Amino acid sequence: MQTEPSAKTGRKPELSAASVLLMTLVVFIHSAAECVSGYDPESLVFLAAASAHRTASFAVQGFLFLAGLKLTLRMTDDFSYRRYARGRLLRIGLPYLIAFAAFFAVYTLTGRLEQPTPASAVFALFTGSFTGHFYFVSVMAQFCLLVPLWRLLSRRAHPALLLFVSLMLTLVFMDHMPELVRLATGYRAELGSNACLFTTYLFYWTAGMTAGAHYPAFAAFLDDRKKSLTVLWLLSLIADCALYIAIRRGTYYALWADDFHLLTCTLAVLALLAHARSLSRNTVSVLAPIDRASYLVYLWHPMTILLLDAALNRLGIRSLALRFLIRRIKKIKKI
Fold first, then answer.
1. Hey, is 292 helix, strand or coil?
2. Pick the residue with more confidence: 324 or 70?
3. Which of 30-34, 36-40, 148-152, 303-307 is modeled with the greatest confidence?
4. Which of 118, 149, 176, 248 has the most C-beta neighbours closer than 10 Å?
5. Cβ pair 225, 274 in contact under 8 A
6. How many other CB atoms are found less than 10 A from the CB of residue 183?
7. Residue 3 pLDDT level (bands cut at 50, 70, 90)
8. 180-217 pLDDT, tens per residue?
9. Dist CA 226 CA 220 (whole Å)
10. How many CB atoms lie within 10 A of CB 314?
11. DSSP conformational letter for 3
12. What is the C-alpha separation between 114 and 191, in angstroms, rounded?
């Protein structure tokens, strides 16, 4: 996959716009989670909440697509992995350590953690399993550690072959990683979740790399096919939401639902980027500083939700809809 020189030059404001939109979706996902888990699955209000929640559920995949894309754009001839790793440690690792320590302290003081041990704390630190959103940092760290491999693939692998192989591997790893681990190591315990493993998101990363390696052609594709991508995403989304709701209601469990969700997420990322290109033309000065703060917002916004929920509980506010609206208002003011 040869990188086009023109893809390396110039600011890409649409990437900032996409990051801000994805960050907004992440905040919405966590703010609305209580509604999805609290409403009766047979009710109409659950239908609305679950559909909105499912619609936003491509945010992490979108961030990883953008990360792979931006990495390839950085891979100029003078690219230094040591310099890149040092930058990742300062910009991603250090804020994560501070946030982890804060969450650990709050969870311990409030009794949400039962007798934490040094071993469990270290395990949680490296896997991101401590609290719901930290797994993304663990996944990003795994991709960053493998940058030499991504550089090799970006130079040697044909884009079509890279995408096909990564797609097949992703589909296999999503469904069968625990079994593969047991076969390879004899370790019988079930993996708690595949969410903290980079293999679950391999396709999104390599698709982003491919887009970054041929960015002018990719940008032209987004401009030319914006309407088509939007229609395809909406059609896929309707089916995806229907599958999700059927599973939650217990009326039908589609074994292929996660595989279909991969299609929906991919179309969602492409449609988002296509619209972000239009949005970014007039909002560069507004979105750029928000984009720079998006990672910190990602790390800390669940703490705001946690403290806000504690206050709502003390006030006796039980309405799920009202609690959601209060969370959204507070988040908007903070941003």
1. helix
2. 70
3. 148-152
4. 248
5. yes
6. 10
7. very low
8. 777 777 665 455 567 888 999 999 999 999 999 999 99
9. 10
10. 8
11. P
12. 21
Biggest distance spanned by C-alpha atoms of the chain: 61
Cα–chain-centroid distance for residue 280?
A: 21
DSSP string, 104-137: HHHHHHTT-SSS--HHHHHHHHHH--SSTTTHHH
Q: How far apart are CA 54 and CA 57, in angstroms?
A: 5
DSSP 159-189: HHHHHHHHHHHHHHHHHHHHHHHHHHH---S
Please classify residue 308 by burial: count the beta carbons closer than 10 Å to its beta carbon, then call 0-12 exposed, 13-18 middle and 19+ buried.
Answer: middle
Q: Which of 8, 17, 70 is nearest to 282 (CA)?
A: 17
Range scoring the smallest mean pLDDT among 149-158, 238-247, 264-273: 149-158
Query: Could you tell me which residues come within 8 angstroms of residue 321 by beta carbon, excluding any fewer than 6 positions away?
Result: 35, 45
Q: How far is CA 264 from CA 131, 132, 160, 228, 234, in A?
A: 26, 22, 20, 14, 9
Which of the pair, 145 or 132, is modelled with greater confidence? Answer: 145
- Angle of helix 257-280 relative to helix 215-224, nearest 10 degrees? 90
Distance (Å, whole) CA 161 – CA 10: 28
